[in-house]
Specification:
The complex is a heterodimer of chains A (291) and B (286).
Chain A lengths: L5 E12 L2 E12 L3 E5 L6 H8 L7 E6 L9 H4 L2 E4 L11 H9 L8 H7 L15 H13 L5 E5 L7 H16 L3 E5 L3 H7 L2 E6 L2 E6 L12 E7 L2 E7 L2 H12 L7 E3 L3 H19 L2
Chain B lengths: L22 H18 L1 H8 L1 H13 L3 E2 L5 E2 H31 L2 H6 L5 H31 L7 H25 L9 H15 L11 H7 L3 H13 L15 H22 L9
Antiparallel strand pairs in B: 1-2
Helix pairs in contact in B: 1-6, 2-4, 3-4, 4-6, 4-7, 4-8, 4-10, 7-10, 7-11, 10-11
Classes of the chains: A alpha/beta (291), B mainly alpha (286).
């Protein structure tokens, strides 16, 4: 197995529900070992796309290969190489964390130690708690535990940290970083741009069933080339210049202040700003197309 | 989510994968899980598992030691025992499965299972195991309760227990497949209990579980004769009532042959419906 091999390859994927073109010609290539985040507004086609890749929904057209298999014809052997954390949580209300993790471990040919997994998702103190008594965030951790039990080569995470407090989110990121470090390919959908920026090697922005842009979080939508904002404190107020040459601007300021510049900050647009711009531009173009 | 837990092992290779666990073993493991969940779920326990015992207790309080039969030789408790056994079998098979599977489909349990390498047959084996264990335990409890509390005489002839065996198994099997099939009828988890228990309750009233079947109007008897519960109850009466009661049946016979045929037809129909209609996801999923 080489790292250049593709874990997921999608060409011209289409899916309609009645008159709605939920997925409208999506192309996607995700390398093995990559962490790929799919971003987009609600109803953009994220979950439909991901659920087609997971083998839960049928496509209308398009070529797909997930770990070398067509997910339209899922086999048990293929399923044992994939981990899924669904967008919705729930079920198995009367069973405890430990009972569920141990039971699900029985489904996989090559499993992680259930105790280790329970500890890793931070549910050690809740192992004897029935899942109906878990908080939303704890239930989500249980979902993650069940998703990673079988040492998946490919892990799908559909909005995994919804309902997490910031601390739980950071702990979750560490867990995912660890899995990614070990070579697990990860497909993530999320509404949290900081989450995508932290975890993803590349992000794809999807709207109305189409991919608008795919790049690293640093370069998405020309982010790396965008002008920087240099700001500082002067005469009791905040001043700033927007420039393509922030270094030169700082040198001039340093010369003017003869040394330390009060309150100096250099910022480029955040991933969130770039994302909102991409979606905004798309919606504006869409409106002029179909008035 | 601590970092010291070592979860960073390399994913396994695609070429050499260890053998997957067998469907039979997973079926047994699922049955154990289903049983744990069943006995922790208060609603199912009261309205399916203990319901026939509660009803039998109420009947014996209401009717006391009043006699029934040609020479009033047995009391109402003994007379209604076979009907309660039959109803109990349908409750833990048909009613329990139809409701719980509808809920499992709605809350995503089935979808989650579909996303694992669990062989689908293991899920159904688990449900069969659940019905077998709960229905045997329930019948044993009913018989013990009737024998100890009301001194009901249980049959001693092996032939009667043989009849009991095939009627029980055919009834439970038909109830199981019909319950799995009927789980697709409720539109949501919220509506499932009402959608399932109402027809079940009506069937119990018209199938000779709560009333003497003979006393019902003929047209109601004919409607009841379409459904399996009437035949299951009649089969159980043939096991637990004295021989003279055969002449009290509408046809004047226990109709064992017809009972076997009708239960078997429902079993086959149910199987076909399961295969054609079973879905692992809610119907709004494409």
């Amino acid at each position: 197995m080489t790292t250049t091999e593709l874990a997921i390859e999608v060409q011209d994927l289409h899916k309609r529900y009645g008159d709605t073109h939920a997925v409208d010609g999506v192309d996607l290539a995700v390398a093995r070992g990559e962490v790929f985040a799919l971003l987009g507004p609600n109803g953009a086609g994220k979950t439909t796309t991901v659920e087609i890749l997971e083998g839960f929904r049928h496509r209308d057209a398009g070529e797909i290969s997930v770990l070398g298999t067509d997910p339209g014809k899922p086999t048990g052997q293929w399923r044992s190489r994939i981990g899924i954390v669904l967008q919705t949580t729930g079920g198995h209300d009367e069973l405890t964390v430990e009972e569920l993790v141990r039971h699900f471990a029985g489904y996989y040919p090559d499993v992680r130690d259930p105790d280790e997994v329970i500890r890793a998702v931070g549910l050690d103190e809740k192992r004897r708690t029935r899942s109906r008594h878990l908080s939303g965030g704890q239930r989500r951790r249980l979902d993650v535990a069940l998703g990673i039990l079988g040492r998946p080569e490919l892990l799908f995470l559909d909005e995994p940290t919804t309902g997490f407090d910031p601390e739980a989110r950071h702990e979750f990121w560490e867990l995912i970083d660890g899995l990614a470090h070990g070579g697990t390919t990860i497909i993530l959908t999320t509404h949290y741009l900081d989450e995508a920026e932290h975890l993803a090697d590349r992000v794809g922005v999807i709207a109305a069933g189409r991919i608008l842009a795919v790049d690293t979080p640093e370069r998405l939508g020309g982010r790396a080339e965008s002008e920087a904002t240099v700001s500082w404190q002067e005469d009791g107020e905040r001043r700033h210049v927007v420039t393509g040459e922030p270094t030169a601007a700082v040198q001039q300021l340093a010369a003017r202040f003869r040394g330390e510049i009060p309150g100096l900050a250099i910022t480029r647009p955040s991933l969130e700003e770039i994302y909102l711009r991409l979606i905004g531009e798309y919606e504006a173009a869409d409106r002029t197309e179909q008035p | 989510m601590t970092t010291d837990a070592r979860l960073t092992g390399t994913p396994k290779g695609a070429i050499r994968a260890p053998a997957r666990p067998s469907a039979l073993r997973l079926g047994v493991s699922r049955a154990k899980l289903e049983l744990k969940a069943f006995f922790r779920e208060r609603d199912a326990l009261i309205f399916a598992f203990f319901f026939p015992i509660i009803m039998l207790a109420i009947f014996s309080v209401v009717f006391g030691r009043e006699g029934i039969g040609p020479d009033a030789e047995i009391d109402f408790t003994q007379y209604f025992l076979p009907g309660m056994i039959a109803a109990g079998i349908m409750l833990v098979s048909f009613q329990t499965l139809a409701i719980t599977i509808a809920i499992e489909r709605d809350d995503g349990t089935l979808k989650r299972l579909l996303g694992t390498p669990m062989p689908p047959v293991a899920y159904f084996l688990g449900k069969i195991g659940l019905v077998l264990v709960t229905s045997i335990a329930q019948t044993a409890l009913l018989l013990a309760y009737a024998a100890l509390m009301y001194g009901v005489d249980l049959p001693t002839e092996p032939a009667r227990w043989l009849t009991f065996g095939w009627v029980f198994l055919l009834g439970a099997a038909a109830g199981t497949v019909l319950g799995i099939a009927f789980s697709s009828v409720p539109k949501s988890a919220r509506s499932a209990p009402a959608v399932v228990t109402t027809p079940m309750l009506i069937l119990q009233f018209i199938s000779g579980v709560f009333f003497v079947f003979n006393d019902l109007p003929t047209w109601l008897q004919q409607i009841a004769s379409i459904f399996p519960l009437k035949w299951l109850a009649q089969g159980m009466r043939s096991v637990f009532l004295p021989r003279e009661f055969e002449q009290l049946e509408v046809s004047g016979s226990w109709q064992h042959g017809l009972t076997a045929v009708i239960l078997a037809v429902w079993l086959i129909l149910g199987l076909i419906m399961c295969i054609r209609t079973f879905r692992w996801q809610r119907r709004d999923a494409g």
